[in-house]
């Protein structure tokens, strides 16, 4: 009886609509769990995941409810269903290869960074894919056997409109749920994975299409006069190198260490009489580092990614969102790794314990010219080793050595830490600092994770010294942006000896200072530098230290060591700081007193007006450069535009070994210098996870096993014997 009723319902239009909606929901959810790794945590996220395919499915299939005639309505609805199934299927296959979702540019074949699906993709099909397409066959059988029949009665228009309205409501509800868990999900677009996790594949695809259309529009409006304005500004803005510093680190390795959420106030700061970061303090107070105490972060919503962009391209992030996410896949960059490679033959790599797709790094790094990207997939990511955003810092540094020691020198490498990230949690066994005692737990714990990072750095530096890298490398430490937000500064104020009641925007602006510390090998003339500057100034500074003139590149910052260095520091919201003043909107504060200048003199007014003009101009020109992708029209003399297709971040480890092998005794890696032996024994780490690593842990060997397979495919016996001899590719993986 019951079955009959259901059968009858299925043979109505609403019945067919319900059936297709249910089937699509079901297979999407199965795919979420079987094929995608969406990092879903907790009940709330599971709930959002379970409902996220519903709204768009109702909306799309609901379009067919407006078609009056029976057969066309069924055909239309089924075609929508097939198209949506195809989108799901292609994404599953694409994900197997790239651990990422297909963007519109990839689908249309316009993407310069990653290929779409090719004929070889067929080999990526798995039997379980029947879940995705099997129902189409069943539906066909249903109609052929007349189990399913076309209902000729049209759906009343009112009902169709009601369904459309309901699905739009659902969609908005879904977006709100996503935004609650991950504020600014749509404006900042951290990661495609997040968009799919919260909003579903369809919404992600539509969102991506809209974004792509907007970008294309901006690009198409580019004119050559736009570039001329920028070139003019660039010429005027250029600060020539300080002859005392130019080239003093020529051909040395460059090791960049990105200190997550690390603010300058932590340096030399004592909490309850104890230094939070004793190791960094020792570097800061010594002469081996040039340390800047008036260096500001200038990030916008793109946070870490904005900092990376400014540090390595000397152009600003965008006024909204993240440049890496929004434009990074397709823009032309003239980034540090490419410049160093082309001028002085540097190799390059990034080490970071999070998924490669976060902030779209897996694509952007190719455009920056990075040869290797060792992301989470290269590390042992068993849950014990992870904290909120990925591998704990102590482990990331330690486990990177395995790859680092095979890099050809000179190298330009970047380590991106992440343990000191909001909400600043680290497991009990890694806590060795008393938290603060305010009523805000993230403020309290900030000191605990900062201390952990400090210890991680100490252990890494100890290795750098023992392995000889310290004396052979420029080492740069910088904080990317604030850890304590403006609103939380009120809680922090008393710890800094200030009162929350008098705390104001001037104080917030001063808190944007972050460390910049530069070690130049065999130079002991460092110490604290007081000139004002920001992240945008780093690249020209570095290039000059390495003996590369920055003049021909389009850069918005200037060399911090140059006597001509411009000390006006722009924030992304047009506010700015100079050595004398802090300007927030129309309010001018005097830095020395923190007081508002209510009646500025003519001279002060003129000075501020000039600085303001500089700030608005550089931000606007940088935006025009990036939004219109103007660097594609500007090729500095001798610079070869980067072709992202030259880079593929799979099998990085094996590729390093292969190259080392090929170079033979011309190899300049640390491993080769160390008589073909590892240097990891020089690394002393107190990380509890390293003492207890389970040798049988399957994840341990994921990178090894990939390397292993790759090497086997090259069938170079000699490399294999080298790998087997000492590289620690576990026997379990090499037997695969
Ligand atoms: C994640 C990390 C954090 O990979 O770099 O980025 P953030 O949230 O600081 O921008
Ligand atoms: Mn960050």
Write a structural description.
There is one protein chain. It is built from 28 helices and 18 strands. Helix 1 (2-10) packs across helix 2 (13-34) and helix 2 (13-34) packs parallel to helix 4. 47% of the residues lie in helices and 9% in strands. It has an 8-stranded mixed sheet with strand order 7-6-10-1-11-12-4-13, with helices on both faces. The chain has a 4-stranded antiparallel sheet with strand order 15-16-17-18. The radius of gyration is 28 Å and the shape is globular. By secondary structure, it is an alpha/beta fold. The structure holds (2R)-2,3-dihydroxypropyl phosphate (GP9) and manganese (II) ion (MN). It is found in: Cell membrane. One of its GO terms (cellular component) is plasma membrane. It comes from Candidatus Ligilactobacillus excrementigallinarum. Residues 679-705 are annotated as: Disordered.
Q: Mind sketching the topology for me?
A:
Elements: H1 2-10, H2 13-34, H3 42-62, H4 70-98, H5 104-107, H6 130-144, H7 157-181, H8 185-188, H9 192-199, H10 201-220, H11 224-237, E1 253-259, E2 270-271, E3 274-275, H12 278-285, E4 289-292, E5 295-296, H13 303-313, H14 323-326, H15 336-344, E6 347-352, H16 361-368, E7 372-374, E8 386-387, E9 390-391, H17 393-404, E10 411-416, H18 441-467, E11 473-479, H19 486-492, H20 505-510, E12 516-519, E13 527-529, E14 533-534, H21 538-545, E15 569-570, E16 576-577, E17 581-584, E18 587-590, H22 602-627, H23 652-663, H24 670-673, H25 688-691, H26 702-714, H27 717-726, H28 731-734
Helix pairs in contact: 1-2, 2-3, 2-4, 3-7, 9-10, 11-22, 17-18, 23-26
Bound molecules: (2R)-2,3-dihydroxypropyl phosphate (GP9) and manganese (II) ion.
